[in-house]
Amino acid sequence: MTTSLQFDSNTMRVILAEILESLTTCENALNLEDAKSKAGNDMLKVMQYVYPIVVSTQMDVIKKYGLPEGREGIIKFTRSVVALEKDDRVVADLHRQIRSFYLPPVNVSSAVTSHV
After folding, report:
1. d(Cα 11, Cα 72) in Å, to the nearest integer?
2. Element containing residue 1 per DSSP (H, E)
3. What is the CA radius of gyration of the chain?
4. What span, in angstroms and rounded, lies between the C-alpha atoms of 38 and 17?
5. Distance between CA atoms of residues 91 and 39, nearest Å
6. CA-CA distance, 62 to 38, in Å (whole number)?
7. How far apart are CA 110 and CA 9, in angstroms?
8. Which has the higher per-residue pLDDT, 76 or 111?
């Protein structure tokens, strides 16, 4: 069964905020802290221990909004977020906050150097 749900920016903001809230609940916060401690600075271990907790939490939230459970739901949800974040700074910021649980910050230099 394929579900073609479209979310507007306001609905996506609510979903993302709910995911963030769920990630910071006592139980999830403790699980994430433990997973981050196990992973240390090893990105492979972060993806092994931390990322599954974040994805599981996302799945618990998005299924309440009609998305299918599992991989298909996460893919559809992520595609919707990426499409909306291009035009909505709040959606982009909320999504960045969620990604910060498992991705380190990336510093991009805005200065362009010329090789003349």
Report:
1. 19
2. none
3. 16
4. 27
5. 28
6. 27
7. 28
8. 76
Residue with tokens 């995911």: 19
CA 103 to chain centre: 10
Instruction: Return the DSSP state at 87.
Output: T
Q: What pLDDT, in 10s, does the model give residues 10-47?
A: 999 999 999 999 999 999 999 999 999 999 999 999 99
- 76 Cβ partners below 8 Å, 6+ apart? 3, 5, 67, 68
Give dist(CA 68, CA 62) in Å, integer. Answer: 8
Residue 115 pLDDT = 55
What's the distance, CA 68 to chain centroid?
17
